[in-house]
């Protein structure tokens, strides 16, 4: 079992859940405060979280490669 796989999947799943909830929220919340929140916070999340997930996946691959290099196939 790769020790990074489950945390990466958890982040991906939580991100999808948060995106779904945000979409539902924007259908109800239609004022300038929401637009300010979107500009100040949400837009950053939309770039930071997917990038973080990609970096976690890269780290997972590096850890797997290192484990194979030292002869550890499973943790």
**Which outline best applies?**
elongated
How would you spell out the order of helices and strands? HH
The separation of the N and C termini measures 6 Å
Largest sheet: none
CA-atom Rg in angstroms: 17 Å
The overall strand count is 0
Instruction: Bin the strand percentage.
Output: under 5%
User: Considering DSSP H and I runs of 4 or more, what fraction of the residues is helical?
Assistant: over 70%
* Number of separate domains: 1
Work out the helix count.
2
Summing up helix and strand content along with how strands pair, one would put the structural category as mainly alpha
Instruction: Outline the low-pLDDT stretches.
Output: none
- Round the mean pLDDT to the nearest integer and report it: 90
Give your account of this protein's structure:
- There is one protein chain.
- The protein has 75 residues and is an all-alpha fold.
- The protein contains two helices and no strands.
- α1 packs antiparallel against α2.
- The protein is elongated.
């Amino acid at each position: 079992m790769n020790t990074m796989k489950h945390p990466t999947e958890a982040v991906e799943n939580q991100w999808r859940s948060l995106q779904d909830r945000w979409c539902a929220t924007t259908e109800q919340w239609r004022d300038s405060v929401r637009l300010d929140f979107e500009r100040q916070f949400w837009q950053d999340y939309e770039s930071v979280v997917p990038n973080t997930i990609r970096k976690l996946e890269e780290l997972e691959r590096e850890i797997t490669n290192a484990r194979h290099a030292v002869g550890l196939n499973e943790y």
